[in-house]
DNA sequence: TCCTACGATGGACCAAGTCCAAGTCAATAC
DNA sequence: GTATTGACTTGGACTTGGTCCATCGTAGGA
């Protein structure tokens, strides 16, 4: 945890109370929170924190590569603190639960040159969908 | 084109001028339009059509499996009329251009049982990202 | 301890999408 | 051809998720 804060400081981040709280919230939870959920948890520790600051800080963490944005559907983006281990997502189509998964193989290699249309392809994002055990039984 | 309209009628769709126009707009274009773009094109042919109707109709086409929704990022959803041929998407991270692509291999098979957490996994959606030729040179 | 540029604030604003009460009309029945 | 009716459409208000900006506050260097 203080690893994250250290890394940020080393990159010249000005360490404010607000940024610390946002970083700690993300780092502490291993689920994928929405910006509003981050705000709610941050507010517990630092009641005056503003929505704009949470958005700013999340945006900065994303561009620093410390967290990744997951746009699961048309709803709110979720923020995934587990950015250093490449992984994909498995989402329950019914209740929206998300799990990190690690498929075998290299999906980038599965896209032949003839299907790249001159693009410089740099990443691939896979979303598996299905029913989680709970929703499957119900 | 009238294939689509026939299929819809056979499923008990009440064929109104509005629905016909929306279906024709989607069927005519082989790009991936946003709801607003569909509305704009529909308005050319049928000026009184309302936004709510376009959203309703798109939603119905999606649940009938005739078009698929593509939530590329936090922006507006796009509607993909090419729902009958399975395919994935390649998106330019800079300008947002989308192309349909057909990767080799079966991504569902790449997810081992140990990574399924009891889910009944039914589909996978892959999004390749990179720079299109135009944005790469600029 | 003082300065100052970087960061935080909150309230207005925006875009995408949903909801709803009232009006309209496609398809069936006669 | 006309009547009937329930499904469809309308448009405007509303909601959600997010951005912008002028102003104020403060972290961290000198």
What is the overall pLDDT average of chain A? 88
CATH class of the largest domain in chain A: Mainly Alpha
CATH architecture annotation of the largest domain in chain A:
Orthogonal Bundle
Distance between the termini of chain A: 38 Å
Estimate percent helicity of chain A. Answer: 25-40%
Largest sheet descriptor of chain A: 3 strands, antiparallel
With helices defined by DSSP (H or I, 4 residues minimum), what is the helix count of chain A? 5
Principal-axes geometry of chain A comes out as globular
Radius of gyration of chain A: 17 Å
**How many beta-strand elements of chain A?**
6
Sum this structure up briefly:
Chains A, B: Keywords: DNA-binding, Repressor, Transcription, Transcription regulation, Zinc. Chain A is 36% helix and 21% strand.
């Amino acid at each position: 945890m203080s690893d994250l804060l250290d890394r940020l400081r080393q990159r010249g981040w000005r360490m404010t109370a607000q940024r610390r709280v946002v970083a700690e919230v993300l780092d502490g939870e291993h689920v994928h929170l929405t910006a509003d959920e981050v705000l709610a948890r941050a507010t517990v520790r630092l009641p005056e924190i503003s929505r704009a600051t949470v958005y700013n800080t999340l945006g900065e963490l994303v561009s620093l590569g410390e967290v990744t944005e997951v746009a699961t559907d048309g709803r709110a983006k979720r923020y995934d603190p587990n950015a250093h281990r490449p992984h994909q997502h498995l989402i329950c189509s019914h209740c929206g639960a998300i799990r990190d998964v690690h498929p075998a193989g290299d999906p980038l290699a599965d896209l032949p040159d003839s299907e790249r249309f001159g693009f410089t392809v740099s990443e691939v994002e896979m979303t598996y969908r299905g029913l989680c055990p709970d929703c499957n039984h119900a």
